[in-house]
Amino acid sequence: MKFLDSVRPQIIAATRIVIGFLFAQHGLDKFTGVFGGGPDELDAILSVGGLIELVGGVLVCIGLQTRLAAFICSGTMAVAYFLYHQSYGPLPIQNDGELAAVYSWAFLLLAAIGANGVWAIESGSDSSRA
Prior knowledge:
Layout: H1 8-32, H2 44-62, H3 66-83, H4 92-95, H5 98-113
Helix pairs in contact: 1-2, 2-3, 3-5
């Protein structure tokens, strides 16, 4: 798949943008209910998680403090999986935790890669190259 090597930075950037955008939507929904959720469902834990989803998702999407934001988002999803989903069954397919697990691993990968300097506000400040 050598042909992908020339566009690797753009693929990583597009993946970062999409993951951040999708994640931010979860936080926006928790605070505004714009996608069918709503503020009336919030408790203290959900509001902290929602804030991390919204702010962290936006930061990852725009490529600002990507590694730190992605690391925090990854940890938040790991905590969500183990504190909430795991109690419903041992496997993600059983406990409806696939999305939390995938987000946790995707953000951990982005924390390791960083914004890669492509289509990111922090362009050039991230020394990591994929």
